[in-house]
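Course assignment 3, question 2. Fill in each field.
Student: A.L.
Task: Predict the tertiary structure for the chain below.
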Amino acid sequence: MRFETLGLAAHLLRAISQQGYTRPSPIQAQAIPLILAGRDVMAAAQTGTGKTAAFTLPLLQRLAEGPASKANRCRALVLTPTRELAVQVQESVCDYGRYQQTSSLAVFGGVRINPQIARLNRGVDVLVATPGRLLDLHSQGVIDFSDLEMLVLDEADRMLDMGFIPEVRRVLKQLPTARQTLMFSATLSAEIRKLAQGYLKDPVKVEVAAPNATADRVEQWVYPVDKKRKPALLSHLIHENAWSQVLVFTRTKHGANRLSEQLLGSGINAVAIHGNKSQNARTRALGDFKKGKIQALVATDIAARGLDIEQLPQVVNYDLPTVAQDYVHRIGRTGRAGAAGHAYSLVSADEADYLWEIEQLIRKHLPREEIEGFEPEHALPTERKVAHAAKIRQQRSPGNGNGPGRPGGSSRRGGRGCNGPPGKYSGQRRSRRSGGR
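Answer field:
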């Protein structure tokens, strides 16, 4: 199947071609015709499957058929859980909409609100926003939703995880009921389905992969190692394999800072990104990483959520996540859009329970490989012992899965915009508060 068969306009096909794509991904092939037909859609798609283009392309085509937005109004609203994702969605709107007169703006906290107010006073066709900043703008009477035609809830599962659903509901109460609503989520959990029932009308369900399935093209290994030797092993892997680009996940912000300093000490150009870093610092670090100026980007889960890095060859779990589902999101940073990817996990004996829970979730045994010179003194327990330990831990802590050590971190707010061809961006970004609210 090719994009030409999906009913997209010629100017969109031209923009797609310039991005280097010829064939739609499964989520794009299924969702685009439904959205063009005006249906509400509830879609489950893992990270890296092309879901952003799956709603951006038909959204742009539907907007091209109507008049430009009026002052203080928008015709389409995309809600995202983080500022990084908001920027990336808005960049996608600019890239694919470069040959049509459609204005767009991303708003999130961390910058002065007055420039955003000034831009919204002129009206914007596509508004991409995090819930908190959007509510701030609405409370000041800056944005009027009377002309809203389309709503997209992107990464609805992450909004749920990050506690944004009350804010999302407050936003939805302000929107006209006569609209097309699209919901995209990594999984269609019971909570997500319940949310959809209240706001989507007779939605078509689209699922392109089994829930919790990891990308088929991502090869995964476990390297058993003592905790104290993890920094040395990571440095060894980077040097030995001549990795020019690697995304490394840690469990905490402090751990990210410490590891980046240790890597720098071993001659590896590394930088940490997490919620305590300013928005400008995070944006600069990500930009330098994409350009190849930074060899290792060390990140917490919240900071890395939504990062879109094309052809990222490998991901390293320096610490295993305490929540198994986060492992799926992490390794989804590599092996994107059909490319091959590699995921390596440095696992110490005290993380055995987390490893077992990950393998239970993905229904796959991850191969272990000890690296010469880094053989652990404390071996990983057998699966039977791990299962018993996990059972005891669950009995002692009924809320297990969200316990101490779960990656977190505040992120702050910001804004960014482009106005039709050829995709010019404006706006400042820095940070202020958690989750890009």
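Instructor remarks: The first strand starts at residue 41 and ends at 44. The chain has two domains: 3-211+410-436, 218-396.
Grade: pending
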